[in-house]
Design goal:
- This protein is mainly alpha-helical and about 190 residues long.
- Helices cover about 70% and strands about 5% of the residues.
- The chain is built from nine helices and two strands, in the order ααααααααββα.
- The protein has helices at about 10-20, 25-30, 30-60, 65-80, 80-95, 100-120, 125-130, 130-145, 160-180, and strands at about 145-150, 155.
- The chain has a two-stranded antiparallel sheet.
- Helix 3 runs parallel beside helix 5.
Length: about 190
């Protein structure tokens, strides 16, 4: 039996993501596939947010009034984008989750979620405005998620939900392991 290095919250997210990838409606129904992608991305994002909040609470510097005031000033910006989450994890806590395969593939899930939620199943204006990223996005959608991009439109295959779940699972396993190697005494409750 393999023992994974997981937080309590990470373990719960893994179970939920696993169910999403194997739910029957998520294999053939376009709305079900979209719901599974959005749910996978949201569950992982909520977990990472819990981790960041736990790291701030765990840090001894938070006992200082000045630190608490500064944190209160910037707190909202920490959770605004994945780029800001990664920046704070790296600079404040020495936890770099950029560039590795799991993070790059999870970016495809986040990007597809954004296309679904903010573009009604098509590339968003923001995604289209980043011309240099369009080729990477097209390649990631196809290779990682089995989704096809044709112009602005995105076609979801029956494999998208399962692949989103697998990518989300792999990201959580990698993220929690990196986290607990660096902060073995950290506890992140499931809520």
């Amino acid at each position: 039996m393999i023992a994974w290095n997981l937080t309590e919250s990470g373990e719960v997210v893994l179970r939920r993501v696993g169910i999403l990838g194997t739910t029957p409606f998520a294999n053939s129904d376009q709305d079900g596939i979209r719901a599974a992608v959005v749910s996978c991305a949201t569950l992982v994002e909520a977990h990472v947010d819990k981790v960041i909040k736990s790291l701030f609470s765990f840090d001894a510097a938070m006992a200082l009034p000045l630190t608490r005031v500064l944190h209160a000033e910037v707190q909202d910006s920490i959770f605004r984008t994945w780029e800001s989450r990664r920046k704070w994890l790296a600079t404040a806590f020495g936890l770099n989750i950029s560039g590795d395969r799991q993070s790059q593939e999870f970016d495809a899930v986040i990007d597809l979620r954004n296309s679904i939620v903010h573009g009604d199943g098509q590339l968003t204006d923001l995604q289209l405005s980043r011309f240099k990223d369009l080729f990477r996005l097209k390649e990631q959608y196809a290779r990682v998620l089995s989704a096809q991009m044709n112009g602005r439109s995105i076609t979801l295959s029956s494999e998208v939900a399962l692949r989103s779940a697998i990518v989300s699972r792999d990201f959580i396993l990698h993220f929690d392991n990196e986290l607990l190697v660096r902060f073995p005494a950290l506890t992140v409750r499931a809520s």
